[in-house]
Amino acid sequence: MKKKLWGGRFSKPTDNLVEEFTASISFDRRMYRQDIRGSIAHAKMLAKCGIITKSDSRKIVSGLREIQKEIENGEFEFTVAHEDIHMNIERRLTEKIGQAGGKLHTARSRNDQVALDIRMYLKDEIGEITGLIPELVRSLVRLARENIGVLMPGYTHLQRAQPIRFAHHLLAYVEMFLRDGERLQDCLKRADVMPLGSAALAGTGYPIDREYCAGLLGFRAISKNSMDAVSDRDFAIEFCAAASIMMMHFSRLSEELVLWSSQEFRFVRLADGFCTGSSIMPQKKNPDVPELVRGKTGRVYGHLLSLLTIMKSLPLAYNKDMQEDKEPLFDTVDTLKNVLAVTTALMGNITPDKKNMENALRLGFTTATEMADYLAGRGLPFREAHEVAGKVVSFCEKRGMGLEEVPLEKLREFSPIFNADVFEAIDVRSSADRKTSPGGSALVEIEKRLKELERIHGR
Known about the structure:
- The protein is mostly helical and 459 residues long.
- The protein has three domains: 15-106, Orthogonal Bundle (Fumarase C, Chain B, domain 1), CATH 1.10.275.10; 111-201 and 227-358, Fumarase C, Chain A, domain 2 (Up-down Bundle), CATH 1.20.200.10; 368-426, Fumarase/aspartase (C-terminal domain) (Ribonucleotide Reductase Protein R1, domain 1).
- 61% of the residues lie in helices and 5% in strands.
- The chain has helices at residues 16-22, 25-28, 32-48, 54-72, 85-97, 110-146, 166-191, 210-217, 226-231, 234-260, 288-311, 326-347, 354-363, 368-376, 382-399, 408-414, 422-425, 428-433, 443-457, and strands at 151-156, 159-165, 193-194, 221-222, 268-270, 350-352.
- The protein has a two-stranded antiparallel ribbon with strand order 1-2.
- α7 (166-191) packs antiparallel against α10 (234-260) and α10 (234-260) runs antiparallel to α11 (288-311).
- It is elongated.
- The model has no long low-confidence stretch (mean pLDDT 94).
């Protein structure tokens, strides 16, 4: 049994079962870069403040850089006996450089060390994730631009409602994903606070320079309360909440793709490379990618609830329960990055079926509101106009007709106000393009937004 770095107070070794149960090296090893960066900054600060010699600091820094190469070359032996990434690296450092390695932990604790590593890790990952969002936006904008002439029904209650352009529908998701990026950037502000120097919970009596460390590590601020600093996981919970909202947006888009690619809708065709077949039914083309995205949303929601539950009743300051924060966080990061990548690729491999989309407009009486507006514009109170248009819809429904197929003479039986120009009013294309209010579905508004997005994010 290897001696623990903290084992001085103990007379018996850790039970093997407990050692396996409490170790986190199997999952926190992914933070090795952050752990080494933090330790290098800490060693430099200790030397700057005269707490250790410059010679020892140089040995520590050099040894840590060699350890990083060992890890990246697959030459480093991670062991459960050393519990976590922090102890594994520190033990190896002492093996490499001797007594100087034991001085690295001066004026810090694993409590502030792990808090530092997880914040640095999340800062790095938020940067990567937000870097992927513009390409997703571009894929949606390109699809919208290429199909700007395609009309489709807009829906409420999953019932055909009013004519819109396919591009307008896609751009609704662009707005969602742009908000997601803003949320992640806002979350970054809370993660970008350095806890190092808080030690176990009370701070340290050594004359350290926390601002110097923060500058080396690129933090915008240092924590203001040592107890809060080592026990705070709000930033991780906030990230998982932002990720959950973003996954909800992915799930909504995925649900529509599943519906639209079904035989019942036939609004879009998904490329073969993004679908699978059935082991028994030769005709099947299953939309597995959007279905899996939809399913993984529940997984991310679960991680958010897990973190909230872990933290909900912990007394200050650090508790071992908080070791359970990493797996949900890490899996949320991995899931979100994978979903971003696959959805971006999927949206570049979708073909809308213009004919079926526009047929659905005719069958859904989607310009009934325009018919009511037509009558209201000629003096009929809107509620009466609404009733007249509803009666025309009922008439058409019973006969399998579209609104535009009702003869003018018949329309005048419902209201003498109808004239021949009503057919222009209820034309699906003119209906969509009449919505010129800012952010509306008119072609002029869609063009305006597309140009803004292309200017900001590129084509």
